[in-house]
Write a structure and sequence with these properties.
It is built from ten helices and twelve strands. By secondary structure, the protein is of the alpha/beta class.
Amino acid sequence: MVTPVVIAVAAPAANASATWPLAPMHILLGAIAVALLVGLAEWLHARRVARVARLAFGPSGSPRIWTRAVPIARSVAAGLLAWGLGTLASLDPVEVDAQPAKNASKHLLLCFDASPSMHIVDAGPEREKVSRAIWGGKVVQGILDRLDMETTRVTVVAFYTDALPVVRETFDKEVIRNILDGLPMYAAFQPGGTDVSKGIAEALEIARPWPKQSTLLVVVSDGDTAAAPAASRLPSAIANTLVIGVGDTNRATTMWGRPSRQDATSLRQVAARLGGLYHDGNRKHLPSSVLEGLSMIQPRPGSDLALRDAALFATGLGAFTLAFATPLLQFAGRRRWPRAAGAEQRRTTAAQPETNIRPLPASAGQPPRSSAHTLETPA
């Protein structure tokens, strides 16, 4: 038994069952109300500005063309900001520190091949291969990442010529990772042929007292066994069974004077007798469709993460638009009139002579006066 530790687990969102936009309806309606209110304020502001348009924008009486989109942009930005903040406030935290439950409701029972052939380096999709044991551990890691460790315990049984429990009912994923990191566990057994039947029998015996339909049985092996496994009666605790094969299925590698490769036929027989599914994990991990069909697997919080990401994006976009709209209007919204043209116009006007004083008309029969500015004085 490994002492339970405090780990970080993903908490399911409160709105996982909702459909897009996934936020509660009152948050969406509130965001629409905020957008309409800001739009009304923008309309009233536009009416007031229109009265002093020439004073505000110069002789043309209008700002630049792009500013016409600002009222709509600010209204939409206010609605996005309100929706984003409301949605984020309604979601649960992504990660919480949780103490594992004393009584686990789910179990992962891992039956792992510890024979020397599991250390042959011919597994993995990359050109540089890794050992079968290491690659099998990586495939199992994909299952561990989908488990809710707050309510799940993991038990590992290693088998070679015999079967030995390595760890029982642990919550700690790091312990499992260390076990599946290519440890030479065959050193704990007597040399000989691999007996997968003993490993499965030991695993099933461990699972008998567990609750009904609470256990996922995973068998990882290269199928290089001395004898075919016998049919076993599964306890009621086993809900699903996976048999994962590792090692090259086409090319054999010589080890200790005998060829060794993944025996897919033998592993399919094991899966059939256990009523489970066989997967050739030598080149790829378990498909999502297989994982999602297992009753033990915690559903991925993909929709909740998508909602959280959408809320964060909406909040950032709305806040950015509202923050920079006013400074942008201040410095780039008004048409600029050239200063040089205005100064030249003022100089031309100042240089013109006064032409608004005209000479007085001459009376009939009298010579014209010498100047229209001469004033007559009475005799």
